[in-house]
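U., I forgot to send this yesterday:
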Amino acid sequence: MNTKIGILCFVLATTGLASPAQAQEYHPRRAGHPVRIVGYVLSPAGVILERLIFRPAWWLGHRGPLRSLFGFPPPKLELPSPAQPEQSGGD
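Result:
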């Protein structure tokens, strides 16, 4: 029963704190610009190219022998610090 009351309090608190989403104000001079219209059309194509071609190519370029071919430096090797010998606390 306490968990139901706690959940109800949480839902009421978060609902009370939520604010409505605000859209950007419409500017007819900026919205109708020809370059903006081209951007609307080409944006999905750019996302598809990035996901299908550019991200996998970047991943491959950072692996193994291709790394040096494309000029990426080798990863820095971090060696663990040597173990400190325990000192006896002879007082």
